[in-house]
Amino acid sequence: MDNAPIGIFDSGLGGLTVARAVIDKLPDEHIIYLGDTANTPYGPKPIATVREHTLAGLDELASRGVKALVIACNTATAAAVSDARERYWIDAGIPVIEVITPAARAAVNATRNRRIGVIGTEATIRSEAYSSALAAVPGLELHARACPRFVEFVEAGITHGPDLESVAREYLVPLKSAGVDTLVLGCTHYPLLTGVIGRVMGEGVTLVTSSEATANVTYNELVDRDMLHVPLGPGERQEHLFLTTEAEGAFPQLARRFLGPEVQQVHHVDVDSHGGGRRGRTATGWN
Ligand code: DGL
Question: Which pLDDT score, from 0 to 100, does residue 248 have?
Answer without folding.
Answer: 83
